[in-house]
Amino acid sequence: MSTNNDKSKDSSAESSEEDWKQDSDAPICKEPNTREVHTMNWVKRVGKRTLEQYFECEPFQLGDDEELEEYLSNFQRGRPEVEKEPEPLNGYKFIDETYEQSIPKLIMPEEIRGKYFSLMAGLNISHSIAFPFVMMRYGGYCFLIPFLLSTIVLTFPINFAQYTLAQYTNVPPVILFHRMSPMFFGIGLLVVIVQYISSSAIRFDHRFASMTLELFYSLIAERVEWVGPSQMKGMMNGYVPRCGDDEFLREGQCLPRDYGNYRFGKSKREYIRDRVQAYLQSDEFIREYSVAQAPPDRIFDPVYQHSHYISAATFLSILLFFVCLLWVKTYFHRIQHVVFYGSIFTSTCTLVAIIWSWGHSAAILVSVIGADFWKLLEIKTWVVAAIHSLIIFGTVDASYLGIGSANKFSNRLFIDLIRAKIGGLFFLMLFSTLFGMATMVGASIWMMRTEKRQLTVDDFRILVYSDVQVYEFLYVFFFQNMSHKLLMLVFMMLFCSWEFSSLMLMAEGSIATVYRIFKSTARLPDFLIRYVSLVFHCSFVLFIHFYLNDHRQLPFLLAPYVVFVQIFTFGVFHFKRFFTIIMTFNKRHRALLYQHRKRLRFYYRYVLIGIFSGMILFEIYSNGFRVAKSTLAVVGVLAIAQIVRYKFVYKTRMAWTPTAQFKPYNGRDFNEYRRQERALAGRGIEITDQNEPEPDMKKIRRETEEERRGRLYEKELKDKRRREDRGPFEETASVRYWRERYFQEVRECRGSLSESEEWF
Asked: Which topology term describes how it sits in the membrane (predicted)?
C-alpha cells in the first residue's frame, strides 16, 4: 500500500513538473482540482512577470486604466463573451475572401527582397540630379537644415503610416480608401492620379535614354562635315539651317512665305519665334559671331526637333512593358542586388576619378552651391524643403502604399523605414554630388570650345539656375571619348533600372486594380491579364509623359494637397484602431509606442494637419486658387457621389475593424492582430459587423457583476468540498522551485514585492 502511495506521489510530481512546461493556453477542465487551481495562479503570476518586464516594470492595470480605454481597440470593460450560433454561409463574403486570395501577388519575404527594397522603391533618383541646383537657389548648404528637419518631422511619420497600412491591407490605394469609407473613394482616386503624374513627369526620365540613343548613333554614323557659317547656332549644341529672306523654317525645311500652311497650326509664340529667327539669320555679323567656328557636338541632327524626346520615351515605355511582363520577379529577387551594389561602386569610382582628373573644375561645385544663412528666415525656403523631401522619398505619390499593393511581405516596419531614410540620404548626396561635378566639368568644356575662357562662379550659377540645361552639360562631359561614352552607358543601365523599382510597383498596382474592378479576370490566365493591363498602363504613362513634358512642376504644386487629404483621412478615424495596427507590425517597439501613445495621437491629428494647412495657405497665397480648385474638386465631387450612392454610410469609427473585405492579407498578420487585441484589451472578443449598434455597456456591466459573484460563490463551494475530500495540499518540489524563482526575478526587477499582491 505504501509502495503504491509512493508511486502515486512520484507520478504526481512528474506530471506536475510536466504541467509547468506546458503552454499557458492549454484548456482547463470545468471543475479544476486543487493542483490545477494552483497551476492557474502560477500562470497568472508568470503572466504578470512577463508584462512587467515587457513594459519596463511599470504596472499595467487594464481594469483601472481609463486612458487605455480611450486609445486601445476593443476595450469593453466587463463585456461578456456571448456564444453565438454559427451564422449561415454568406455567399458574398465567401466569394470576396476567396477572390481576394486568388489575386496573384509577388511573394517577397525580407530575406529575398533584401534590406534595401524600400530604399530603392521609395527614393526618387531622377530628382537627385537637379537637387544641388535646388540647394543653390534656396540657401546653398544651409538648405539641408530644413530639408533634414522636414524629413524627420513630416516625411518619416507619414511614410510610417502609409507603410503600416500597406502591410496591413495589401490592396491598391483606390480600394484601400474606399474600404475605409465609401466617401473617401475620391481620395484614393486622387492618390492614383498623382502617382501617374509623378511617375510620368519625374520618375519616368527619358533624358539618359536620349543620350544612350545618341551614343548608338555615334557608333554607326559619320560626323557631319563643317561647312562654315552656313549654319547658325540657335540653341546650345543644336544647329538650324539658314533660310532666305523670302523663306521660313518649318521642321527642318525652308519653305516660301506664300506657302499655304505658313500660319496654319501655329501659335503666336511660334510665329514670333520664327520671325525673330529669320531676322537674326539675315544679319551677317550676328551669324558669324554666334557660330564661333565651333563644330557641332551632336552628330545626329533630327529633322523634327522632338525626335530624340519621342524615341527615348517610347524606348523606355517598351522596356518597362517587357520588364513588368516577363522579368518582374527576377528583377526583385536577383537583378535588384546588382543594381544596388553596382550603383554604389560605379558612382564612388566615378566621383573619385572626376575629382582626381579635373580638380578645381569639379570642386567649384562647392562654391557654386554656396551657403546663405539668411535664406532660412524666409518661409518659402522651408516650404520648398518640405515639398522636395516629400517628393524625393515617395510620400506624395504614396510609394509605400504601392509596395503593399503589389507585394505579399512581412518585415520590421520601423527599422526598415529608418534604414531606408538613412540610406536614401546617403545616396541622394552621392548622386547629387557626382552629377553636379559632372555638370560643372561639362559646362567648362563647352565654354572653352565656344568662347575660349574660364567660367566664374557667377557664370556657373547663371548657366545652371534652370536645370533644363543640366543634361546638355552632362552630354558634353560623357561624350569626350569612348571610355566616357561607355561609362555613360553603364550609368544609363543603372539609372533606368533604379527607376524601374518604383515604376514596376506602380504597374503591379494597376494590374491588381484591374483584377478587383473586373471580377471575371480571376478565372483567366495570369499572363493574359498582365499583358492587356500593361499595354494600357504603359500607353497611359507615355501619353501623360508627353502631355506633361512642359509641366514638370505639377507634382510639386499638388504635393501639399495630396498629403493633406491622406493625413486628414488618418486623423478622422478612431485612433484606438490604428494604434492596434501599429502595435501589431512593430513587435519590438510596443512598449515605446504604448508609452507615447498620447503624443502619437496628438501629432497625427493636430500637428501634421496644422503644418500642411499652413503649407496650403502659403501655396494659395503664392499661386492662387487654381491648383486648389482643380485638386480638391475631384475629392469633393466623388465624395458627394458616394454619399448619394451609399446614403452617407459613415464608417470612420469602426473603419479599421477587420472584415471579409478589409483585413490583413497574410494570415499570420491577422492572427497577430487578434492576439495583440487580446493582449491590450485584456480579453479577446468577437469583432462584429461595423453597422451593428453599440450595446448598452451599463446593462452589460451590471449583469456581468452578478454572474461573476454567482460563479465565484459556486467555485468556493466546490473548492471547499474538494479540500474536505482530498485533505491538505502538499507543495511539491517543482511548485516550490518555480515560486522561489518567480519572487527572485520580481525582486531583481522591482525590488521587493508582496506575495499577496494580485495581478488579475
From this structure: Multi-pass membrane protein
Helices (H), 283-412: 284-291, 307-326, 328-330, 336-358, 360-369, 379-392, 399-406
Confidence (pLDDT) at 229: 39
Which one, of 372, 365, 359, 373, lies nearest residue 457 by Cα? 365
**Among 144-148, 193-197, 267-271, 613-617, which stretch is predicted with the lowest mean pLDDT?**
267-271
Q: In this structure, what C-alpha cell is assigned to residue 113?
A: 527582397
d(CA 346, CA 494): 9
Question: What pTM was computed for the model?
Answer: 0.66
CB 425 within 8 Å of CB 153: no
Q: How, if at all, do strands 247-250 and 253-256 pair?
A: antiparallel
* H helix count then E strand count, the chain: 34, 6
- How far, in Å, CA of 128 to CA of 392, rounded? 8
Domains of the chain and any CATH numbers? 96-211+309-646 (1.20.1740.10), 225-295 (no CATH)
What span, in angstroms and rounded, lies between the C-alpha atoms of 404 and 401?
5
Closest by CA to 567, choosing from 176, 158, 187, 170, is 158
Backbone CA torsion sign across 515, 519, 522, 528: negative
Residue 720 CB coordination number (10 Å): 10
**pLDDT given at position 145:** 93
Per-residue pLDDT band for 741 (boundaries 50, 70, 90) equals low
Q: Do residues 122 and 424 touch, judged by C-beta distance below 8 A? A: yes
Q: Is the pLDDT of residue 148 over 90?
A: yes
pLDDT level of residue 146 (50, 70, 90 thresholds): very high
Q: How many CB atoms neighbour CB 728 within 10 A?
A: 7
Whole-angstrom Cα distance, residue 424 to residue 436?
18
One-character DSSP codes across 656-709: TS--SSSS-SSHHHHHHHHHHHHHHHSS------TTSPPP-HHHHHHHHHHHHH
Using CA atoms, how far apart are residues 392 and 399, in angstroms rounded to an integer?
11
Measured in residues, the chain has a length of 760
Cα torsion angle, 702, 704, 705, 710, sign: positive
Handedness of CA 666, 668, 670, 672 (dihedral sign): negative
Q: pLDDT tens-digit profile of 674-711?
A: 665 555 555 433 444 344 444 444 444 444 556 666 66
H helix or E strand, kind and range, residue 199? none
When mean pLDDT is compared across 535-544, 594-603, 730-739, the lowest value belongs to 730-739
Q: What grid cell was written down for 439?
A: 555638370
Which residues, in sequence order, are bridge partners of residue 241?
231
What is the C-alpha to C-alpha distance for residues 251 and 243, in angstroms, rounded to an integer?
12
